[in-house]
Write a structure and sequence with these properties.
The complex is a heterodimer of chains A (189) and B (65). Chain A is built from seven helices and nine strands; from the N terminus they run E-H-E-H-E-E-H-E-H-E-H-E-H-E-H-E. Chain A has 189 residues and is an alpha/beta fold. The chains are: A alpha/beta (189), B mainly alpha (65).
Amino acid sequence: MKKIDARGLECPRPVILIKKAMEEVEEASILVDNEVARDNVQRFGHNAGCKVTIVENDNGTELFLKKETEKEVVDIDEEIVVLIKSSLFGEGDPKLGNILMKSFLVSLLESDKKVKALILMNSGVELTTRNLEAIEVLKSFEKKGAVIYSCGTCLDFYGLKEELKIGLITNMYSSVELLVGEGNRVITI
Amino acid sequence: MITENMVLLDIVSDFPETEKVFHEYDKKIGKCLLCSNLFDTIAKVTIVYDINLQDILKKLNSLEG
């Protein structure tokens, strides 16, 4: 396995280094020391069909990328993309909506279905910023390989960008690409 | 030749000298273009940030190769 130390390098250098490494080997790891590099290396890995494992340690963040086999790639094509358009599940009493949203996330997490990504739009971004209970559940999704995306425009609109506690920031173009991606099963909440 | 359908990461990876062209737009858009849109195409970022497509292609291709 090729190991890269990209500490001190600004984006896009770390991503270019891991891209070139993955053109030569099946597995590589890269050590980074900033969030932008971590997020972009993670996104590169997923785009390139790699399994990405993230380990935080005293030296920084180390990302391990491994190319998926053909069978694993087929499995990924059958994964679920969840579009969450509100911080609450359904209409009606907000308290009930909050309970139901947490229940939905936990139930989905515990199901045997593979979730590829969760996209949070509109007030859904509260789930990645202020809703601490939801953030804990979303962390478990990340550990199982899902990528959490929060809409950048929505974070800006609600003034929550600085409060983002998990996942990556995305835009409508990238979200649509995921939603219409071949083989992706989309669940809208 | 760099075209509108090429992804920023592929461009800076294959033609490192183009990185400075992208950084020229950082001030205009208020953030690092490469950091924020590394996986998007030239066409997409020009729409999102109201950048003149022909201008940026001209700048990039004047450096490439």
